[in-house]
Structures are given as structure tokens and as C-alpha cells.
Amino acid sequence: MLSAPKQLKSTQPRLLLIDGVSGCCTRLQETLGLTAQHLHCFSTLEALTAEPLNADDIVLLSLGHFDNSAFQGLRVLTAQLPTQPIIVLAPAINSDQGDALIRQGASDFISLDQTSPEAVLRAFRYARDAHNDKAEINLLRNSDPLTGLGNRRSFYQNIMQLISQVQDGKQQIALLTVDLDGFSKFNGQCGPKAADEVIVQLRDRLLSAAPNAQSIHRLGNDEFAITLTCTPDEDLHDLTRQQLKSLLPQTNMPFRAANRRSILPGSIGVAYCQPGTAVELDELIRRAAMARLQAKQEHPGTYRIYDPAFDQQESVASELEPELAFALRANQFELFFQPQIDLKTGKIAGAEALIRWRHPKRGLIMPGEFISLAERNGMIIPIGYWAIHQAGMKLKTLQLEGYDDCRISVNLSFRQFQDSNLPHTIHRIISQNEINSAFLEFELTESALISDEQHVGYCLQELSNLSIDFALDDFGTGYSSFALLQKLPISTLKIDRSFIRNVADNPNDAEIVRAIINLAHSLDKKVVAEGVENTAQLDWLMQNDCDQVQGYLYGPPVPFKEFMRMLEKA
Q1: Are 193 and 213 in contact (CB under 8 A)?
Q2: Alpha-helix residue ranges (DSSP H) falling in 116-191
Q3: pTM, whole model, 2 decimals?
Q4: Which of 146, 179, 433, 532 could bridge across to 223 with cysteines, CB 3.0–4.6 Å?
């Protein structure tokens, strides 16, 4: 089929006639005195395989009759060639027929029985100029002025066409939506000019990482949409995995703007639209957005693929959200403690404090059901201070009972660093309650470290001055931890349970864990393996000089009184 030009060309304009009326091509040549070099005639079949058009070329469609099929052919042609002027020719066209042709998308019409060569050429010039103006207006309406990519309106038009092809069984779609965690805060701190610089850098990275995407659009602020397509007999899931593999490192690289280096992790949500399970436009967008929100809540800087279970989780979360503030006031939260075992002595070296919610009707609620909700609505900040206070008081009890070398670690959410008073508030909790902070440890995920590297670095240094230690949780699952290790006062690396699960029988996992242990020891840092559940894992970790372990092999998280009994028996 005739296809629109990829870019403007300065070649000689051509007239391309789709000749549905026998002899029309010859008649037009005679009328205008044109040669075959300037007037190219196509049959309907030839038009489907013609070479791409130049920007200045004019398409002529000759009609011998004016019925629904003729108008349908014109609509198809204008849809296929939205950037080309299309003029309808016929031996005779009255004003009513001409108006109908314009309504169906024609740029102009010419009745060859009632015109002169000068009028024909004037119509050509007018149609080309008018269509260029229309194309420029259309470009402005459908383009994002900052990035030059298609905007939200263009995205809707594009994705609706693709969904119709999915419904016809001709196409599969993967919709990926991307945004940056902490972008609004960065915009507020550094201003719109720096924010625009970040957006342009993100655009360049997306274009570089997704050269084969069907389209990339900017939907607004820091949100972009990437559309992947393939035929029904291709593997859409594999195509998506390959695309994510190249996208994630690009979206998690530092941005340089406002004379500073800022890490704003990119969260990605994925939703599929496939034959047999095709969804409407709004539902596809909602699913991608929900998957992106899930990624943001679980681990910023990664991706999630839409799962119907997300809707159920959202329903439960909406019921629990109004109760969070009351639960804190009513003292419904409780800390459980999971022991950490020193592999050299075999004794309990400390414990990780893990929050639980004793709901009066639902019973014991695990953190996976409410922590992400608390992070989203800001309640994680007061809940986090409550957890630090409680952990400190339990640490004080341990020391009064003679367990002077038992360490307690508490998780700090990346959202808690959004509180500018974090160091001051923690200092006040410690000093007012006379807590020995030398045996207090805060566990951080990499998402916390990279949320605002400058501010987080300041907070950690201030807290380190209080003799508080820091452990980097889920190590091995992020993208820039190695660089951060040398910058920040981190004393312990916690190896993610996903590597420990198969460490005894999977060579790849074993090599990763061995490399982490060697790296940590070369930097004079301690290593704790999470999720140890069997003796095979334990034996491997002991043979490879891991320092400490925690997991169900030694016990699940338990209430404080039970943890005290475990210490007494040790």
C-alpha cells in the first residue's frame, strides 16, 4: 500500500494517480501537458505495493461513480495517508458530490469536464498548502512540545487502532507505562527547568532502549507509554521480557540536572491485550497503571505485570486504609522478632524486629497487607517512629536482663526519608528513653538509598554519629548497590532469600552468593543470609564463610516474650 513519508524530502513533487476510471490518466496528461515523469498512474493492485511517498507528493483518486463503496475507498485512503493531500478526480462532479467528498476526507475535488489547466494546477497548489497547514496543526495537537513524542491524544488514537486489530485476531499488544519515583519532589526542590532536563534524558533513554517499540508516547509529567506489538503466532511475553531487560537499567541510571546527580528509579507496569482476552482501552490503561503502582510499592526501580490478584489486594487495602491511624492510636501494632544466628558461635547474635497488626476483627495481619498502603498514604512515617521506639525499649529490656551483646534491627522504609526531621526525631527517641544505640541497627532497601541520594546520605551520617549501624537489605536485587557501598556507612549486607533458596544446588545462585560474601569481606562488612530453611543451605553458607543467618530453620518471627525464652535456652 502507499505509505506516508518518514521525513520531509526536497525532491520534485509528483502526482500519483490511483486510476479507477479507464483513460483518466491519459486525459489528465493531455490536459496538463505532463509526462510520465511527473504523473505516476497506478491500478488499485499497484497502489497496494507502491514505494513510499515524498512529503510534497499529491495523491489523486479518480472516481467514476459516487456511492457508498467509492466513499469507503476514500476513507480508507485518507486513513492510510494522513499526511498527504488527496484530490478526487472525475469527469463531472456537482457541488453536492463535492461537499460529500470533502466530508469524507478529500483535500479537494476536480471536475475534468469543467476546468482549465490553470485551474487544475491552482487546485494542486491550494491542496498541498492547505494540507501542509493541516498536517502542521495536527502535529501540534498530537505531539508533546518538550519531547517531540506523541502526546496523550496521539496515544489514545494509536492504541485504539491496535486494540481493534487485536479484536480481529491480527495483533497482540503489551502496554508498558513508566514513571519516575520521587519526580514530584525533585521538581519541587530543583524547579521546572531541571525537571524538564530529566524528562528529556528519560526520553532519550527510552528511545535508545526500545528501538523496536511500536510507539513511545509521553502521557504527562514523568509518565511515558511504550507499546509493543507482535503477531498472534509470536511470543509476546518473551518480547516483553527482552524489552524490560534493556529498559530497567536505563530507567535506573542517575540523571544529571541542576548541577547534581539524582537517582529517580523508574517503575514500570505491564498489561497485555491478546486475541481471545482483548480488553477495552480504559481497562488496558488501568491494568498497566495498577501494575506500575504495585511495582512502586513493592520495590521502586523494578516492574510488575498485571495480575487480577492486584484488584483483590486493592479492595482489601481500601478497607484497611481508614483504620491505619486508629490502629496506631489504639496500640494494635506489635513487634515480632526473628533470631539471627552467628555461624561461628552458633548463638543468637540479635534479631530483626518485624511489625504485625493485631486487628480486632481480622486477627493478625502480616505487613505485606498494610505496609505498602501505609507508605502510599504517609502513615508509614508515624508507624516507623513507633517501631523504632518499641524496638529501642525492647533492646533496653534485653540489656537489663543481661543480654548485653544482643542486637536489634528495625526496617526503615524509603518513604520515611521524605520526613526532613528523620535524624532529629530518632535522636530524640534515643535520648529521651536512654537507649543504647550502639546495639541498634536500621535495615534499608536500595530503594531507600536511591530515593534521594544526597538527603539519604546526610541522614545516615547523622544517625551513624549516634553509633547506629546500617544493614542493606535484599542485596543483589538492585542496580547500583556496589557504588553505594563505598559512599554510605553500611556495615552489613543481607543477601536476598531468592538467592539463598537454591544456593546448595544451583551453580548460578551459588556464584552470586559467593561473590557477595567475598565483596562484603573485602570491604570489611558483615554478611547475613536471609531465608535459610534447611541444613543444605546452612552447610553451604558455613563452608563459604557467611557470618550470620536467619530463617525458619532457626525459627519464625515470634513475640518478644517467646524470643526472650529462646535466648534463655541458648
Answers
A1: no
A2: 117-142, 152-167, 183-190
A3: 0.57
A4: 179
